[in-house]
Every structure is written in C-alpha cells, then in structure tokens.
Design brief:
single chain; 109 residues; alpha+beta; 2 domains; 5-stranded antiparallel sheet; two-stranded antiparallel ribbon; 3 helices
C-alpha cells in the first residue's frame, strides 16, 4: 500500500494509491501525511474510515512543506555511483575510468 498527498476539491488530502491512482481518501481528521508520520498513527482505523475518490485528484508532493531543511547525499555507495556513471546522466564522472564515478567527498544537496 502506498500513501500520497493529493489535491482534490481545492484542498490537500492523504490518499491511498493503488495502480498509479488515488483510490481512497483518508478522513480529514487524519491531517497531513507529515502529521500521520510524526504521530506514528496506526492506519487500521484510518483505512476503515476511508472514502472512495469520486473525482480527479492530482498527486502532489508527499510533504509539501517540511518543518526543517532536508539534506540528501548523492552517490552514497560504490555500486550506485558506478551505475549512475554508466547511465549517461552523470556529467561529473570520468567515462573511461571505472573508479572515476566514485567521488572523493560526499555529494550533498
């Protein structure tokens, strides 16, 4: 089961996504996806009270406004760095050196 934030009827709601589309909306009392995660809410009761989606819903960012900055580390293990270098999208890797894909320092973004 996947959860997502969707825009429906002019507001944001948490929805269950199945086969690439929102199928059920959790009750508004569930709050945002961030609220559910922070409270470590059990989904059992929320799913029991979920309603079907009856109109177009646009999948939005899961957490629209994080409470603080998020930092990510790219190429965080050797196999991923080498795979990314071979993809053709990595402009920082030396194409002829297999170890050229592995950065000397972490890539933080």
């Amino acid at each position: 089961m996947k959860l997502a934030t969707v825009e429906i009827g002019g507001g944001g709601r948490v929805a269950v996504v199945e086969e690439g589309r929102a199928t059920r909306l959790l009750p508004e009392s569930a709050g945002s996806l961030l609220d559910i995660v922070e409270r470590q809410t059990s989904l059992g009761g929320l799913l029991k009270d979920a309603t079907s989606v009856w109109g177009p819903a646009r999948i939005a960012a899961p957490i629209g406004r994080p409470r603080r900055n998020i930092f990510c580390v790219g190429k965080n293990y050797h196999e991923h760095a080498q795979e990314f270098a071979k993809s053709g999208f990595d402009s920082s890797a030396a194409p002829d050196a297999p170890t050229g894909a592995i950065p000397e320092a972490p890539i933080v973004f």
